Each structure stands twice: as C-alpha cells, then as structure tokens.
User: Which sequence fits this backbone?
C-alpha cells in the first residue's frame, strides 16, 4: 500500500455523514408523527366538542345505510380518481402550480353560477366555474406572453385576484335572505355530505370522460408530457393535446368542488400524484397508484368530516393525503427515506468490515504469511485507530463470522479469508488497470482504488481479469492474491498468495 | 332585498370621507398599510422569482396562528407571531426536506407542504370552533370590518388607533428603515447572487432575512385580509409597478402608490356593492394592474398596438 494513512480514508466521509442522516430522519419521524397524530387526535376530540357522539356517527357511516353517506363515498372516490389521474400529468409536467391557480380562479364562476337562479344548480355552477377557471389560465398565459412578468408572478396574481373577486360576490350573496345561502359556503372548504344525485351524475360523467380520454390517447398524452419536442417531430397536434389536457383538468377540478372545496382542490391534484411518484417509476403504474391514493384519501376525508357536525370535508381529505405522502416519503420501498437509509447503513457496515479484513490481510502479508493470527495492537496501528476502536471493528467481523478473537489475537475464518483476498484483489486489480489501461502514474491510483474496491461486482472483476493478462503483481510490486474457493476444505494455506501464483478467477475459477 | 344596493354619490363617494371616516376610512387606512408593507416585500419577491413563496408562507402560517389561539385563548400578538413563525419555518424545512430527500420537484413540494399545513389549520379552526376566536370565514376574508371596533391603543392621553393599525404602521416604518439600510445588499443579492457572494455579502442570510420579513408582513396582515387575499396584496403592487418602470426605487414608490389607490378604490367598491372590503381592495388592485397592463406608456398593450398600427 502506498501510505500508512490511506487505509482509513474511505471510512471517514461515511462516519461524518452518519449523524446528519440520523438527525434529518428523526426530524422527519417527528413531523410525520405530528401529522399522523393530528388526524387521530381531532377525530377523538370531535365527540366532546359537538353534541353528536362520534362513535355513533362512525357506526352510521360504516353501515352505509344512509343515502347521504353512500353519495359522499361514491362522490369522493370519483373525485379522487379523476383528480389523481390528471394530477399525475400535472406533476410530471412540473405544472403543479397551474393547478393551484386554476382551482382558485373558479370561485367567481361558482358565485355567478349561483346567481343564475339563486340556488344550488350543479350544472349552472359547473359551467360558471369551468368558464372562470379557463379564463384564469388564459389570463396567466396572456400576461406571461405580453408582459415581462414571469409565470410565478402571473400565477399568484391571477389566483388571488380571481379568488378575491369570488369572495366579494359571495359576501354579497350572504346578505340575501334566501335559505340556500348555506349551500354556497360549502364550496369553499367542501362538504361531501351535501352531494346530491345531480352532483354525482356530473362527477360520474366527468370521471368517465377523463378515464375514457386518457385511455384512448394515453400514448399521445404521455409523449406530449415527457418529450414535447419529439411529439412535434412526429407531427402530433401538441398544442391541441395540451389544450385537451387543460380542459380535462378544469373538468375534474370543477366537478370536485362540492366535495373538496375551492381552496384545497389543487392539493388533491398534487399530493396523490406526488405520493404515487415515490412508489413507482412507470408512468401508467403511477397513474393507477395516484387514482387509488386519491380515492382512499377522499374516502377517509369524507369519513373524518362525518364524525362531527358541519366539519368541512376538504381539509380532512387533504390531511389524509398528506399523511399518506408522509408515509410514502418515509417508507416507500424504492424511494423512501427509511429503506434508503437502511440500505446505505448496511452498505456502510459492509465497507467498514471489508476495510478491517483488508487491514488484517495487510498485517499478515507484512509478516510474510508466517503467522495465522493478527494481534489486535497490530491491527489497531494498521487501521490507525485506538485499541477500543479496533476491538469494535473485530467484534463486527466476529458477529459476521468472518473472524475469531482469542487472547487479543484475530484469526480469519475461511469465509473471512476469502473476503479479505477478494477485497485486496479488487483493490490491486483496479490499481493495475488504472496504470496499464488508463496510463495513470502508480502513485495516483491508490485513492481511486480505495473507493472502487467495495463496489466492483463479479462481472467487472472478470472483465478486468480478461483485460489484464498478467495480473499477478500490482503497480507497487505486491502480489495480487487469488480468491480461494468457498469450500473450507481447500484450506487457506494452499490458497495463500505468493508472487509466483497464477491468479485464479473470482470465486476460484481459472 | 336586492343583490346590489341602490347607487348614490352621497353614500358611495362622500360619506366614506365624512361621516363614515371612522369606520370606512379606518378600514381603507389599514388596507393601505397592508398593501404598502406587503408591496415592498413583494417587489423583491417578484424580482427573485419567489412570488410563490408568498403563496406558500401565507397559507402555511394558519396552523401556527390557530395553535397559538388555542394555546393562549386570545389574540395575543406575541403568541400569534411566534406560532406563525414556527409554522412558516416548518414549511420552509418541509419543502427543503422533501426536495432534498426525494425526487419530488420543488413546485410539487411547495404545493404539498403548504396545502397540507393549511388543511391542518382549517381542521384546527373547524374542530375547535368554540374555543378559537377565529372562524373559517376570517381565514379567507380577514376581519377588516371588526378592526375599527377594537379598543384603541393609548399612549398617555393620545389615542393611536386600533392595535392592528398600530402594528402595521410600526411594521411599515421598520420595513422602510431596513430597506434604506440594506438596500444595496438586497439589490445585489437579487440581481447577481454570484457577484454578491464574490464580494463577501452574506447571500443566504439576506435570503433568510427576506423570508423573515415576508413572514412578519403576512402575519401582521392576517387579521385584516386573511390568508389567501394577502397573496394578491403581495404581488399586485410590485407587478403593476414593474409594468410602468424598470428602475427599482420608482418601482417601490409606485407599488406604494398602487397600494393607496387600491385601498381607496376598494373602499368605494365595497361601499357601493356592500361586499367584503378585503376582496374589494383586491379587485380594485387588479383593476389598476389591468389599467397599467393596457396603457403603460412603455409596456402597455394599447400603446404597442397603436405603434404597430402606425408602422403598417
């Protein structure tokens, strides 16, 4: 090896990084627990605060005997599916905030829809909201095209201005003595219990339209969303496809208003889709997941808001979706923080064990392989750590059955010996490869090899062996050991490397 | 009962300035202070393309404010500011954590963090409705009509006005002072962060300071205009000024003028239609923006069409 200080080099960054990961993970846990407990706590509190007993309400909900409950369930599932599917497109196109602007901009349309005949007419509200939402997104694109204002400014401005105009109109209705005015307030934060058969027909039609259009034009929509340039080259009508998507989005948002409310409908577009993107890498699976998560959070929002009187549905729905997102962020098998942290940790431990094995090999080598055991002191001085740390390292080898410890001396087991030979072989082969194939000076190759030795797979090692016909001595003149067969009967003596040995392949193959 | 009250010049244009000055005039003054304070911050948000951080912060302070109400049982300003800060900071951390530790894009991360927190706030307000002096309507609309009725702050024998007015005036004065003191740093870090870092300016500290300023402005405005309309008051003044001039100091001044015009226009509109004063101020602000968009001498649509038509 080149220098006495180098063997520990690869360990340091890992050691230093560890506390930071721990801290951020624990912070996340606290945040997730807080979010999760929020929902539960409030559900428990609702009973004491409103006269309705929440257990009775829960039983009523779960029995599904009440038509209002059945309507609420069906409506929130339809909402979750249509918003989840279209949200998938919004998230991959990085247009999450367009959904936000569009959904806030529908409010004046809702108010004008009410004005049509001063009662809750689903169709009038649907048309009014659709016109207002599309007008809002048109104003955003008009502002960004004709002024130097950037898109974020235009989005924020349109969102809040349309919303303000809607609030003005609503505050005017609130003076009216008609009994229907309470109906319009439920459009702000949603009231799934207020869904009527007319609303459900509308939501069913919109969901069917969304599912049908996406199924028919899936390939085209996919291409336009991921690679608009390529789509244009293929002579697809990209602008028309984008308009269709926007129109479907507006349909879904407007149909969802009664159940989730104007203020939070955009969250039902974004959160299920973002959660789904943590669970899978394939777009069609992401859309299915997104629809399912939307439906589940819709249902649980309807359930939680049903537990008390006059609780809005939208916030509970979004909170449920937020909890699901938090769970996916922490626990998703592929992209979750928890599983990723566990993978990184196990890899760090493997690297640490391999470094210890390598150091033991080096101590044995410096003694000419005359002894079979390595004193802990010798290992500690080779690893440049104190005795305690060296004992800890040996302990982790013993636990992995790679070594035995007796009388302060470490002896490798057959599998430990195999591992030590493999890691040293990886290191020296890589050094040899860099000096031969990449023409790098021998004193510059060690650090690189320190890192790569832990990640060279069997296939790469075979490739190195193929390219280095005489791979028996590394650039520093040390013999490259062969890796003995796993069979302990072979014994380590017979396989211990000397300069003259013809190296055999990885795992004992020649 | 009609939707729109009968129009009379006396009621709409004279009385707010004479007999009703104590209520409508006061509301307009509060609206102006909100617009002026938020407009100053908003100018820099627009410049740094962070307009949507205003969106995020204004939504996410709600759970903090709700928890502070629950905790203290009153509208104690200290607890409210603290709660809102904690919530705003939590949003900031959430957004950072989501973008750093997962492949969720920043725009989606912003949307997720603030809408979840906002939902939590609304749930708190709705579930503890009898213990929180704060309802869902106030969250959206603000409580502007109640402000003139609050007992005024007294300094000796001098009556300074309702507490929100005094707070906003103090914040505006502090904002102007800080702006004068740190103008150079703000400008340089906004336009050329690389150069600013090279000159040894604390770019990240300025960023955090701006976020702090934003959170303070949003919290101080919450009682007047609620959590959503404040976005309009953050962005509209700066956006209107940006259409009229390219220089920063005139922009800041024009933004303040826009805030004053919106407050006055909103007052007349809300009296004429008898509607939510905060919503009316936002609509009035949007009208002024549209006017600038159409008729700005340099960037307006009409002068541009006129020039194009003359050229053919």
Assistant:
């Amino acid at each position: 090896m080149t220098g006495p200080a180098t063997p520990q080099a690869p360990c340091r960054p890992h050691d230093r990084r560890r506390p930071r990961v721990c801290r951020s993970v624990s912070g996340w846990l606290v945040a997730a627990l807080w979010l999760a407990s929020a929902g539960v706590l409030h559900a428990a509190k609702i009973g004491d605060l409103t006269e309705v007993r929440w257990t009775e309400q829960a039983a009523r909900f779960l029995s599904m005997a009440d038509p209002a409950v059945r309507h609420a369930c069906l409506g929130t599932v339809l909402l979750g599916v249509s918003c989840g599917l279209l949200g998938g497109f919004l998230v991959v196109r990085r247009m999450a905030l367009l959904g936000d602007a569009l959904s806030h901009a529908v409010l004046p349309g809702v108010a004008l829809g009410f004005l049509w005949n001063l009662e809750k007419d689903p169709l009038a509200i649907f048309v009014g909201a659709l016109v207002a939402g599309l007008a809002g997104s048109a104003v955003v694109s008009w502002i960004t095209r004709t002024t130097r204002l950037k898109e974020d400014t235009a989005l924020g401005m349109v969102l809040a201005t349309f919303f303000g105009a809607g609030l003005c109109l609503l505050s005017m209705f609130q003076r009216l003595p008609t009994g229907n005015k309470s109906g319009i307030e439920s459009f702000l934060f949603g009231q799934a219990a207020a869904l009527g058969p007319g609303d459900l027909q509308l939501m069913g039609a919109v969901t069917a339209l969304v599912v049908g259009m996406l199924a028919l034009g899936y390939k085209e929509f996919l291409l336009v969303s991921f690679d608009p340039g390529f789509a244009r080259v293929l002579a697809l009508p990209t602008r028309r496809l984008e308009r269709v998507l926007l129109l479907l989005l507006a349909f879904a948002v407007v149909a969802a208003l009664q159940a989730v409310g104007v203020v939070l409908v955009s969250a039902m577009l974004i959160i299920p889709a973002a959660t789904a993107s943590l669970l899978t890498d394939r777009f069609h699976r992401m859309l299915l997941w997104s629809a399912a998560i939307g439906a589940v959070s819709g249902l649980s929002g309807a359930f939680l808001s049903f537990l008390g009187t006059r609780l809005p549905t939208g916030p509970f729905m979004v909170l449920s979706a937020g909890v699901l997102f938090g769970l996916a962020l922490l626990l998703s098998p592929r992209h979750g923080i928890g599983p990723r942290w566990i993978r990184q940790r196990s890899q760090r431990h493997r690297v640490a064990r391999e470094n210890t094995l390598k150091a033991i090999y080096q101590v044995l080598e410096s003694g000419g392989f005359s002894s079979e055991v390595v004193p802990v002191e010798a290992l500690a001085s080779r690893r440049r750590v104190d005795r305690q740390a060296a004992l800890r390292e040996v302990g982790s080898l013993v636990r992995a059955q790679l070594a035995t410890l007796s009388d302060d001396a470490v002896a490798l087991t057959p599998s430990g010996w195999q591992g030590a030979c493999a890691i040293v072989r990886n290191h020296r082969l890589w050094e040899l490869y860099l000096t031969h194939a990449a023409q790098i000076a021998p004193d510059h190759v060690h650090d690189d090899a320190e890192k790569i030795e832990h990640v060279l797979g069997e296939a790469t090692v075979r490739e190195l062996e193929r390219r280095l016909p005489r791979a028996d001595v590394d650039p520093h003149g040390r013999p490259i050991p062969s890796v003995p067969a796993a069979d302990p009967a072979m014994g380590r003596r017979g396989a211990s490397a000397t300069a003259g040995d013809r190296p055999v392949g990885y795992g004992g193959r020649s | 009962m009609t939707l729109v009250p009968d129009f009379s010049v006396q009621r709409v244009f004279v009385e707010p300035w004479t007999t009703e000055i104590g209520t409508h005039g006061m509301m307009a003054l509060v609206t102006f202070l909100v617009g002026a304070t938020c407009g100053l911050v908003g100018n820099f948000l627009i410049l740094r393309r962070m307009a949507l951080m205003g969106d995020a912060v204004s939504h996410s302070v709600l759970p903090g404010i709700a928890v502070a109400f629950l905790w203290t049982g009153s509208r104690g300003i200290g607890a409210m500011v603290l709660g809102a800060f904690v919530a705003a900071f939590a949003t900031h951390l959430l957004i950072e954590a989501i973008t750093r530790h997962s492949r969720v894009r920043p725009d989606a991360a912003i949307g997720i963090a603030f809408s979840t927190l906002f939902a939590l706030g609304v749930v708190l307000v709705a579930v503890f409705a009898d213990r929180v002096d704060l309802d869902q309507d106030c969250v959206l609309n603000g409580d502007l009509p109640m402000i003139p009725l609050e007992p005024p702050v007294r300094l000796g024998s001098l009556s300074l006005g309702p507490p929100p007015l005094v707070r906003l005036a103090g914040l505006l004065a502090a904002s102007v002072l800080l702006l004068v003191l740190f103008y150079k740093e703000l400008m340089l870090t906004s336009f050329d962060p690389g150069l600013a870092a090279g000159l040894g300016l604390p770019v990240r500290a300025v960023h955090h300071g701006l976020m702090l300023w934003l959170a303070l402005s949003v919290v101080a405005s919450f009682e007047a205009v609620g959590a959503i309309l404040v976005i309009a008051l953050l962005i509209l003044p700066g956006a209107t000024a940006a259409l009229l001039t390219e220089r920063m100091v005139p922009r800041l001044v024009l933004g303040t003028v826009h805030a004053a015009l919106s407050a006055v226009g909103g007052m007349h509109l809300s009296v004429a239609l008898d509607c939510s004063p905060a919503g009316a101020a936002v609509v009035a602000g949007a009208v002024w923006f549209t006017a600038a968009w159409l008729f700005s001498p340099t960037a307006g649509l009409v002068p541009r069409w006129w020039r194009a038509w003359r050229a053919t």
